[in-house]
Amino acid sequence: MKKLIECVPNFSEGNDMTIIKQITDEIEKIDGVKLLDVDPGKATNRTVVTFVGNPEAVIEAAFQAIKKAAGIIDMSKHKGEHPRFGGTDVCPLVPIAGITMEETAMYSRRLGERVGNELEIPVYCYENAAFTEERRNLANNRSGEYEGLFRKLQDPHWKPDFGPVKFNPRTGAIAIGARDFLVAYNVNLNTTSVRRANAVAYDIRDKGRPVREGNPITGKIKKDENGEPIYIPGALKSCKAIGWFIEEYGVAQVSINLTNISITSVHVAFEEACKSAQERGLRVTGSELVGLIPLKAMIDAGKYFLRKQQRSVGISEEQIVKIAVKSLGLDDLKPFNPKEKIIEYLLENTSGKKLIDLTCKGFADETASESPAPGGGSVSAYIGALGVSLGTMVANLSSHKAGWDERWEEFSDWAEKGQKFKEELLALVDEDTRSFNKIMDAFGLPKETDEEKKMRTEAIQAATRYAIEVPFKTMQKAFGSMEIIKAMVETGNPNSVTDAGVGALCARSAVIGAFLNVKINASGLHDKVFVEEVLRKGLEIETKAKALEEEILRIVEGKIR
């Protein structure tokens, strides 16, 4: 798997976009990285930048961005609501694919060493790149902020991990680390009171609030035998939070960092903040996402709120994301565009044209053109997607049929299964065309020398095998989807039984059509053992699909007479 890491540097400038543009230009100069997001905040006077790429390219881009920031951001003049101690305040690396956290931490330390040596900026390594347990916590490294940095650097205990032990008033210091995917997330309150926002933050954050003697607000903070403050833990693990006032919007917010969304999700943090706010006479009006978020987090949130409404979760991904946006109030302060905020969607934008993104007419026109692809394999996968879509539609209609309220979850489960089959079959629409193109590319390889002929033959055989496997997978998925269609014919909304019947016709046709592709491509494969086995299994699936279609249609006919 290709190694891919994300870098999310935070720069202490959120108002002058000409400065930020100079920094992001340095990132975009580096081959092998993709700039995904630039998110400035006026009140915080801070910009969160997100880019991804292969590790070597990412640390080069990060270095160049830090170098540029050091030359054009003057920390001695900086004012902002967010904690900070440097022009490039933090620069975390996040493993995305094909790379471990340990490897990512090594890259982080390499970057830190170079920044310290070449740019002469004090560097503190945090989270998984930290050299000591104390320095894992970003707040410990940044305590005292920029204003306390001169004194901090005089303390041998806080000697930087890399770079000079001296205060540079222009650049400040930087924290460079390796961490899990962090979601920066703010909850909006119907108040201007920072104290009340902090009260909510203390209720929900992992660290909680300090124990006080006497008055819980003004009393002296109790300390343990080591002189450390004693805290009452908050409600949420892997959650950091503070309250602040955002002049730009005229409201107080609970600013949250979710450091592990597999432990505390966005929607759980939102719900807990709502609960705390309500208990204190406040109301949450919405929320704000800073930077990017994984698609799964939005899907989980959308499904959570759908289930609270006792609605089917077996709807399209786009609709689930819309429910998440509306339920979390992510468009409360400004428009929220999922295509710009969800990391997978941004990466998809670079992947080129897809057949499934065409209109119905566009797909038909493309199929009817002079080009040999898309052909029967892609069309078979698309027919299968339409078939299971009809079955899924019946499940969703059944989930909110009047008088069937107690059965909503039963049909939601069927619809969710149907959506999974639909997405898999839609992916096979494009995959089948790619498999054909692989064969064409292999035939186009040079064949002048014996070595070239051998390599060409091997490439053709590998591509041919793949061109068998793809339509065979279409057969499996289309046949598998017939279980859902049959269940909807038997137990679903009787007013839609013929829709499910048409779905069965489509699914059976998808199986037969895909098998034709399997057979024609199998004729060109030298591995006869593989061919014999795949044809045997294909015939078995085709026979079962035809029989199941007949059974489903008999049930349909019986219900409409």
Question: Which helices and strands appear, and what pairs or packs with what?
Answer:
Elements: E1 4-7, E2 10-11, H1 17-28, E3 33-41, E4 46-53, H2 55-72, E5 88-97, H3 101-119, E6 123-127, H4 138-142, H5 149-153, E7 174-178, E8 183-189, H6 194-204, E9 209-210, E10 231-232, E11 239-246, E12 251-258, H7 266-279, E13 284-290, H8 295-308, H9 317-328, H10 338-341, H11 343-348, H12 360-367, H13 376-399, H14 408-443, H15 450-491, H16 497-522, H17 528-560
Parallel strand pairs: 5-7, 6-7
Antiparallel strand pairs: 1-4, 1-5, 2-4, 2-5, 3-4, 8-12, 8-13, 9-10, 11-12
Helix pairs in contact: 1-2, 2-3, 6-7, 8-9, 13-14, 13-15, 13-16, 14-15, 15-16, 15-17, 16-17
Find the count of extended strands (DSSP E, 2+ residues).
13
Silhouette: globular
Order of helices and strands: EEHEEHEHEHHEEHEEEEHEHHHHHHHHHH
Stated plainly, the CATH topology of the largest domain is called Four Helix Bundle (Hemerythrin (Met), subunit A)
What distance lies between the first and last C-alpha atoms, to the nearest angstrom? 56 Å
Q: Under the CATH scheme, which class of the largest domain?
A: Mainly Alpha
| CATH architect. name of the largest domain | Up-down Bundle
Low-confidence stretches: none
Notes on the structure:
The chain is built from 17 helices and 13 strands. It is α+β, with helices and mostly antiparallel strands and 561 residues long. The chain folds into 3 domains: 175 residues, Formiminotransferase, N-terminal subdomain (Formiminotransferase-cyclodeaminase, Chain B, domain 1, 2-Layer Sandwich), CATH 3.30.990.10; 166 residues, Formiminotransferase, C-terminal subdomain (Alpha-Beta Plaits); 206 residues, Formiminotetrahydrofolate cyclodeaminase monomer, up-and-down helical bundle (Four Helix Bundle (Hemerythrin (Met), subunit A)). Strands 1, 2, 3, 4, 5, 6 and 7 form a 7-stranded mixed sheet that branches. It has a 4-stranded antiparallel sheet with strand order 11-12-8-13. α13 runs antiparallel to α14. The protein is globular, with a radius of gyration of 29 Å. The mean pLDDT is 94.
